[in-house]
Write a structure and sequence with these properties.
By secondary structure, this protein is mostly beta strands. The longest helix has 19 residues. The radius of gyration is 25 Å and the shape is elongated. The N terminus is likely disordered.
Length: 238
């Protein structure tokens, strides 16, 4: 009975190893992928006008979708070239600005700024090397070029009146939405270094990467893209 259990265990391990094994040397594969991005922009803190306040740039969630073409160079090495569409950018916490100081009526006027964020969309072309440390598990590094296709900075403003004695606030019924979609000042090209890990099981590939921006994204600042990507794909052997 014990020998039978051993044989079953060995068979299961053999099947599992086969499921997790990477492609054979000299073969090609297509990997369509979809996932999310967690992005920020470095050196991009926001100084609030007429105050000493500074808002830290914070991460913003986005998406990534595209395709990798992969060639298995050796048992433990593969190369891939991809094309992806990705949404990056950053956001800021909400803040308030004094518009009119309180007078005899003890009423001060403020503007409340909310949902302040920037969205940058790129067509990205990563060239990656995949080093397999174990069956199905790859360490990867490469170089990535991005072409800017869309840029938008948006925020909402809603005024309110506050009684300085009671602290009671009365907000305006409506807010005003601002949106700037001009790409003026933004650089068209973005270069980054992607580093990451992936795991393959039964042709399903889970991939996690950090992208370290090398080039400035704007002509007037030292800001660079910095972002994580988390994707799931399916490998089609050719």
């Amino acid at each position: 009975m014990r020998m039978k259990q051993y044989l079953i265990a060995i068979a299961l391990l053999t099947v599992s190893a086969g499921m997790m094994a990477q492609s054979k040397t000299g073969t090609w594969a297509l990997l369509p992928k979809v996932g999310v991005t967690i992005a920020n922009i470095t050196n991009n803190d926001l100084r609030i006008a007429d105050t000493d306040g500074i808002l830290k740039s914070k991460s913003q969630a986005g998406y990534q979708v595209g395709l990798d073409v992969q060639y298995q160079c050796a048992d433990n090495l593969a190369l891939s070239l991809g094309a992806f569409y990705a949404s990056l950018g950053n956001r800021y916490d909400d803040y308030e600005l004094l518009v009119q100081a309180p007078g005899e009526d003890k009423q001060a006027l403020y503007d409340n700024y909310t949902d302040n964020h920037t969205t940058l969309q790129y067509v990205q072309v990563p060239l990656m090397a995949h080093l397999y440390a174990a069956p199905g598990l790859a360490i990867k590094a490469g170089i990535q070029m991005g072409v800017l296709t869309h840029a938008a900075t948006e925020y909402d403003v809603r005024g309110f009146k506050q009684d300085t004695e009671t602290g009671v606030r009365i907000y305006n019924e409506t807010s005003t939405a601002y949106k700037d979609t001009s790409k003026d000042g933004y650089k068209k090209m973005d270069i980054s270094i992607p580093l990451g890990l992936s795991y393959e099981y039964m042709n399903v590939v889970v991939d996690a990467r950090y992208n370290w921006g090398l080039t400035k994204i704007h002509n007037l600042t030292d800001s660079k893209n910095s972002f994580f990507t988390f994707t799931v794909g399916y490998k089609f052997e050719l």
